Amino acid sequence: MISEQFDxxxxxxxxxxxxxxxxxxxxxxxxxxxxxxxxxxGLLAVAAxxxxxxRRLSSADVSLPELYFFYRQFAWxxxxxxxxxxxxxxxxNMVRRMALIGFAAMVVAMLFTIILGSEINGAKRWxxxxxxSFQASEFLKPFYAxxxxxxxxxxxxxxxxPVYPIIFAITGFLAMILMLQPDLGQTILLSGICFAxxxxxxxxxxxxxxxxxxxxxxxxxxxxxxSVAATRIDAFLFGTDGITHDKLALSTLSAGGLFGVGPxxxxxxxSLPEAHTDYIFSVIGEEFGxxxxxxxxxxxxxxxxxxxxxxxxxxxYFTILAVTGLVTQFCGQAMINIAVNLGMFPSKGMTLPFxxxxxxxxxxxxxxxxxxxxxxxxxxxxxxxGQNRRYNR
Length: 393
What we know:
Elements: H1 2-9, H2 19-26, H3 29-57, H4 68-88, H5 92-116, E1 118-120, E2 123-128, E3 133-134, H6 136-152, H7 163-180, H8 184-200, H9 205-225, H10 227-238, H11 245-254, H12 280-288, H13 290-311, H14 317-341, H15 359-375, H16 380-392
Antiparallel strand pairs: 1-2, 2-3
Helix pairs in contact: 3-4, 3-12, 3-13, 4-15, 5-6, 5-7, 6-7, 6-8, 6-14, 6-15, 7-8, 8-9, 8-14, 9-10, 11-12, 12-13, 13-14, 14-15
C-alpha cells in the first residue's frame, strides 16, 4: 500500500521516465498556458458575438439560438485542444514527416477547391463537407512553414543546392493558386512566412531588400489586376463608397471605453457584418473594454518573446527556421486581424487565432500551436548540464 501511494505521488514527477512523464517535463508549460488563455478568451468572445451573428443570419423560416455559434465553437475548441496536445508529443522527425505529407495534401485540396469549391461572396475558398466548410489554405500555412524550413536546411549539407530558388518557386506557385480563389490575405501572410524564414537563415541584406521589393511589386500588381483588392484599398485610403466595415469596426471597438459596457450589453456589434469572425476584436472592445484588447495584444507578444527565449540556445538549424515560420504565421495573422479592426489595414477576411469563430481556423491554428510546442520541447536535465559545463569553464 505504501509503495502504491509513493508511485502515485511521483506520477509525472521529474523521476518519471514514461513517455507521458518525459513529454510533461520537456514541454514549455508557460507557452502552453499563454495559448490556453487565448482559447478561453476566444470562447468568451464568441459567446458575446454569437447573438449578433445569429440574429443577422436568422430568417422567417429559420431562427438560430443566440448562443448557436458559441456551442459550435466550444465543440471545436475541445477538438483543437486534443489535436494540439497530441501533436506536441511528436518527435522532430515525425513533425517534419507530418508537415511534408500535410503540405502535399493541402496543395491538392487547394487545386480541388478552385474547381469544385463552394463560392461565398465571390470567392471559392471552401470545400463543403456537410457538417463544416473546409478551407484548405488555413491548414496549408503551418505545413508550408515547416516544409520551406526543411528545404532551406538542406544548405547545411550542400551549399551548392539552389534552396532559395526552390522555395521562391513553391511560394509563387501557391500564391498563384490562392489568387485564383482569390485570397489576397493568405497570399500576403504566406509571403511573410517566407520572408521571415529567409531572413533568419542568414541571407545577405541586399537579397532581403530585393525580396521585399518583389512583395511590394506583387501588391501593386494585385491592385491593378484584382478588383476586390482595389476596392478595399481605395476604400481604406480614400474613403470611397462601397465599404465602411473598417470604420464601423473601429467605432464599435472604442464604444466601450476602457472597461467596456459589460458582457452581452453591446449594441453596435449588431451592425457588424462578421462580428463572430473578422471583427470579434471590436466586439471585445465594446463589451470588455480597451484594457481587455490591450491584454490580448500583450499575450500575443508574450508568445513571441517566450518562443524567442526557447530558440536562443537551440542548436538545430531546421528547428530554428521552422519555429520562426510558425510563429510568424500565428502572430502575423493576429496582427493583421487587429490592424484591420483598428482601421490601420484594409479588410482581409483573416481570423484572430484562437479567438475568432470557425472550425477550420481553430483546428488549423491548433496544429500550428502543436507544432510549435513539439519543436520547442527541451530536456530540462540536459539543459541544466549544459549550463553547468559553461559555468565550470
